[in-house]
Write a structure and sequence with these properties.
Layout (H helix, E strand, L loop, with lengths): L1 H50 L13 H41 L4 H29 L1 H8 L8 H25 L15
């Protein structure tokens, strides 16, 4: 009798854990879909801003090393700001397709493995988006240098406003992160993230 009760408790606990993992898998699936949508929009915006700007029509004097370097900086930052969100879209799509498949159809323990992988990879997708936005902002300074190459004082207000905006974004991020941070015992560790 006692042995049967123990098995019932173990089975009940196992079912409860599987239910929690299914909910967590659904949460990361939804999160990755949302990040993928945001990444696609960021990439579309970065492509439009790069190909729609005046830089491609600016007559740049050949042989000017500083103009060439700044033009290269704009192209590199803009290309990276476009490609990182596209890579995030592909990664998030792959996770949304393969993660639940592993969790549902894999061998014993696959649900836990799928949740751990999706948790860690969703953070990677998030940081890819942050890096792409920072690269997009970084392309502003060389773009303005090339655009206003005859008068270096014209871009100063735009650069100052961009710097203020970036500082505000960083401070707001830190403030919000402190408000939403989980207490230490509840925060996932690197071991739990599958690293």
């Amino acid at each position: 009798m006692l042995h049967a009760s123990k098995r019932e408790v173990q089975a009940s606990l196992h079912n409860a854990l599987v239910s929690i993992e299914q909910k967590e898998l659904a949460y990361y699936f939804d999160l990755l879909q949302q990040l993928s949508t945001i990444a696609g929009q960021i990439s579309f915006f970065a492509i439009g801003s790069f190909y729609g700007n005046e830089l491609l029509q600016v007559d740049i004097k050949p042989g000017s090393a500083s103009n060439d370097a700044m033009l290269h900086a704009v192209v590199v930052c803009s290309t990276a700001a476009t490609m990182l969100p596209l890579a995030a879209v592909f990664r998030a799509t792959q996770l949304c397709v393969m993660g639940p498949g592993l969790g549902i159809c894999g061998p014993n323990g696959s649900m836990t493995r799928a949740v751990i992988i999706m948790r860690a990879e969703s953070r990677e997708v998030y940081w890819m988006l942050v890096a792409s936005m920072l690269l997009f902002l970084a392309s502003i300074v060389p773009y303005l240098y090339v655009l206003f190459r005859t008068d270096t004082t014209k871009p100063i207000p735009i650069i100052v406003l961009s710097a203020i905006g970036l500082a505000w974004i960083v401070l707001d991020y830190r403030r919000l992160e402190r408000k939403l941070r989980l207490p230490s015992p509840l925060r996932p560790t690197l071991h739990h993230q599958g690293r």
